[in-house]
Each structure stands twice: as C-alpha cells, then as structure tokens.
Amino acid sequence: MNNRIRWAGLIILNLTFIFLLLSGCINQGRGKRNVIIFHAGSLSVPFKKLAEEYRKSHPDINILLESAGSLVSARKITELKKSCDIMASADYFVIDELLIPEYADWSIKFATNEIVIAFTDRSEYSSAINSENWTDILLRDNVIYGRSDPDSDPCGYRSVLAVKLAEIYYGEPGLTEKILNKNKNFIRPKEVDLIALAESNAIDYMFQYKSVAIQHGFRFIELPSAINLSDPDRNDLYGSVSVDIAGRSPGERMQVKGDYINYSLTILRDAPMKAEAISFIGFMLSPAGEKIFRDCGQEPLVPPVTYRPGLIPEQLKKYFETEKTAI
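and the corresponding structure tokens:
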C-alpha cells in the first residue's frame, strides 16, 4: 500500500510540474505581440535577418513573415480580407494602386534592385553567355529558361518589360514574342519559386532579381542599364514599354508601365499592432537595417522616398528628407 501511495504521489507531482510548465509557456506566449508582415518573395532573406536582429532588442515581439508574390499579397488584403500589420512589395505600384487609399494611407520606397539572367555552372552555354548574346542563347532549342507570373509577381511583369526593352536596345523586331512564347510551362507564381528549378537543373536560366541571385549563390550576367530597370535616370525609356496584368477585381486588367525598380511598404490602416509595426519599420530604416539589406545584395534607398508624406507616422519622419519625398 505504501508503494502505491508513493507512486501516486510521484504521478501527481509530475503532473503538477507539467501543468505549471505548460501554463508558463502559454502565459509567455500570451505575453508576446505578433506583428504580421505580408512581403514579396524576394524580401524573404533580408526580412528574416531583420526579424532575427530586431528580436534581440524586442524579445516580447514576434515578427511573423508570410511570403508571396506582391500582387498575391495585396489580394490577400483586398479580396480575402486577411489581417496583417505591414505589407512590403517589390513594387511601389502594387501598394499605391491596390491598397491606397482604401486600406492604407501612405507608402515608403526603401530599396532598389535590378533584373539579371541567373544560372548555374551546369546550365547549357554557361561559359559562353554574356550581356550581349543572352537573347540568342535563351532562344536555342536545347536551352530552357524560367520566369515568374506577371499576374502574381512584379519580377514577372518586370521580366516582360526587360524583354521589350531588349527588343528596342538590340533593334530586333519580334524578339519579345519569340522569347515570351518559349518555355511557358516554366512560369512560376513568384521569382523565388524558380530557385529549385535552377538548382535541380530543370531550367538553365531564369529572369531574376540580382539580390536573389546573390543570396542563393547563383552565377548571373548583368544586363545593360537600358534593359535592367535599375537606373532612375532612364525612366523615360523604361516608361515607353508596358504590360497588362490582373487588376483590382477578377477579370479586370490594368496597365503597368516600365519604371526603375523600387521596393515599397506600408502599415495597414486597421493594423492590430500599429505601434509595434512602426517600431519594426524604424529599425529597418536605421543604419543597422540598411547594412542588412546591403549584406543581402540589395541597395537601400537612402534617404527613403515617401508617397503622401504628410500621413507618415511621426516616429518615422526623421528618416526622410522633405525635399525628396513624393506627394
């Protein structure tokens, strides 16, 4: 009988310990504040690093990252009515056209990029491709290339714009149609979805952001600045080409004109954790945040540029030069 009592006591003691441990974990979890960020796939690596660094000084805040093509992320808000605090897009156009003014009040352009042709050592003609012959190589019968979906991802419609600019730059009528009609079965929802295809040698080349190529260790060729959408001084040229993509509602189309690449973000008007979201963006715009972007192969805009600057939260205004903001 004594043994039975002793074992019963031990069981009760263990169960009590487990209950207290679980209660502590639950209470600790309840004490956390979750900041939800919908972001472009090409921001996955820098945002992961930003979140990790930010948590060191804000252990009570969880940064929850949800990656998708920028257009898909915007439609989660506008069509699916999903809640988030921050939306970070690979193109300011997505936020300014689809979220402002109904879902957000302002936006911040915070980083740049450029379109490159990325590949591996196993890609066909990897030792021969360069910034002048890349169109010829992509069109060869034994070469497969991939790109992302223009209706889902800014890299997708920027790839189309880059091809149209290449037709102008090289003076080759019909080049756009030839390239875009090839390998259509290797179009993916977002640019980072192409990485596995390239790593497995299912494709030889991909239209990709320079930062993503660097982050994942791909070789790449840089395209002329008249093509790669990296130079704000060439905006008149970039704007001479356009592409139609999925619009605000099902079946609707909208036109996107060429523009130099700039990433943008906003805090949603009904963000549950607005103060915490402002704090995270402040860290992102700080010198520490700028360094993380540079270390990830992506150049931050310094100072950043704002749309509707009068509505920017006061805590963030110190990061801007008024004369360089957009109205």
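(Above: one complete record from the training split.) DSSP finds twelve helices and 13 strands in the chain.
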